[in-house]
What does this fold into?
Amino acid sequence: MDEETGQVSLLKESGYSDKAIEYVVNKVNVGEIEKPSASLSYTGPCGDTMRVYLKVNGERISEAKFQAIGCAGSYSAGSALMEMIKGKTLEQAEGISEEEMINHLGGIPEPKIHCARLAKTTLEKTIEHYKKAKSEG
It folds into this structure.
């Protein structure tokens, strides 16, 4: 069994949906944005760290990526949230709930729900940082 097949089997056994597994395996929205409009790191209470990169044009998010030091839950939640916020206004992006992320993924294991919170909190802090920097001009 190759490494990817083993990872997929382990994630399935752990209770990840096919969509969540696809996001993790294919590293959807993982990476850096060159010259981002905003970028910020946050470490959650679980010890996982996420960094969100946003490119904002006008009031809309045109590009969104993240990097994480964490588990598959952090990667699936980060991938889902970055996918969901593209093309949205900052306010619309801030309004996306943890539950909406989890529904978008088709579910994640119960012990990994805090990973959705990590992604949401990191995004909120990144947007807050962006707005503050913009207002200070």
